[in-house]
From TrEMBL:
Protein name: Transcriptional regulator
GO biological process, one term: negative regulation of DNA-templated transcription
PANTHER family: HELIX-TURN-HELIX TRANSCRIPTIONAL REGULATOR, ICLR FAMILY (PTHR30136), HTH-TYPE TRANSCRIPTIONAL REPRESSOR ALLR (PTHR30136:SF24)
Highest taxon of source: Bacteria
Limits of the HTH iclR-type domain: 9-70
Upper taxonomic lineage: Bacteria, Pseudomonadati, Pseudomonadota, Alphaproteobacteria, Hyphomicrobiales
Example of a GO MF term: DNA binding
Domain IclR-ED span(s) in chain numbering: 72-255
Pfam short name (any one): IclR_C
Entry keywords, A to Z: DNA-binding, Transcription, Transcription regulation
Biological source species: Microvirga lotononidis
Length: 258
């Protein structure tokens, strides 16, 4: 018998048991399986899951299937507030984009130092695919998400970032000339999307578009990432797809602009 049982709060225990169950499962779990495993009333389990989804700790897939958010399982850690809402709203849109294009989808936000923090992903089901975890941060100057987030940042902060960041040639295609990077950022602002073609990873390419909140501020970047050969064959379609899904996510966050 648990000697601390008298001090446990029932609802808190249920939340922890739910998170622990999802953490042990490598595959999404149905609401029925969760209820059967934990013995909770279906209505209670559904309410707890809805709360965890709204806070960004759990993601809901089609047909009442749930899984622990990758950021909680593998890092960078628990999310909360604005970031949790962003993830909760974005995940079904990301899953839809993955299914439509057959490629991996990422969502990234800007860190205070200007680097990119990946916060959510939807992994391609193809055998040969682009894949990366959610730990750490990525440079902004040579990634599609990073270029989007730099392009729509205050100019003096971009200046500070480019002055601090060590511009490394990750591949033979990486652009490290600061003047050329600034030209690329101008094109991103004009075109509304950014491309990274083997600059961060050899054989990996992708395109990203800005995600705006209700005020119109660019708070994140949505990215489709794939192997270079498939990107070359589908570039125009992927650009259209990332722009339309980024606009959809922005509208879900309250943005009313064009």
């Amino acid at each position: 018998m648990n000697e601390n049982a008298d001090f446990e709060v029932k609802s808190a225990v249920r939340v922890l048991e739910l998170l622990e169950l999802l953490a042990r499962s490598s595959e999404p779990m149905s609401l029925k399986d969760i209820v059967d495993e934990l013995g909770y009333p279906k209505s209670s389990a559904h309410s707890l899951l809805a709360t965890l989804v709204s806070r960004g700790y759990v993601t809901r897939e089609e047909s009442e299937y749930y899984r622990l958010h990758e950021g909680c399982r593998n890092g960078p850690g628990w999310s909360s507030g604005r970031e949790a809402l962003l993830i909760a709203v974005a995940q079904p849109i990301m899953d839809g984009l993955r299914d439509a294009e057959g490629e991996t989808v990422f969502l990234g936000v800007r860190k205070r130092d200007g680097r990119v923090k990946p916060v959510a992903r939807s992994i391609s089901r193809q055998v040969i695919r682009f894949e990366a975890d959610l730990s750490g941060s990525d440079p902004a100057y040579c990634t599609a998400m990073g270029r989007v987030l730099l392009a729509f940042w205050e100019p003096h902060r971009v200046d500070d970032y480019l002055g601090r960041e060590r511009l490394i040639r990750h591949t033979q295609y990486t652009i490290t000339d600061r003047l050329e990077i600034r030209r690329i950022l101008e094109a991103v602002r004009r075109d509304g999307y950014a491309i990274c073609d083997q600059e961060a990873y050899l054989g990996g390419s992708g395109v990203a578009a800005p995600v705006r909140d209700a005020s119109g501020e660019v708070i994140a970047a949505l990215n489709v990432a794939t192997i270079t050969q498939r990107f070359e064959n589908s570039k125009v379609r992927m650009i259209d797809a990332i722009e339309s899904h980024a606009r959809l996510l922005s509208s879900k966050l309250g943005f009313k602009g064009a």
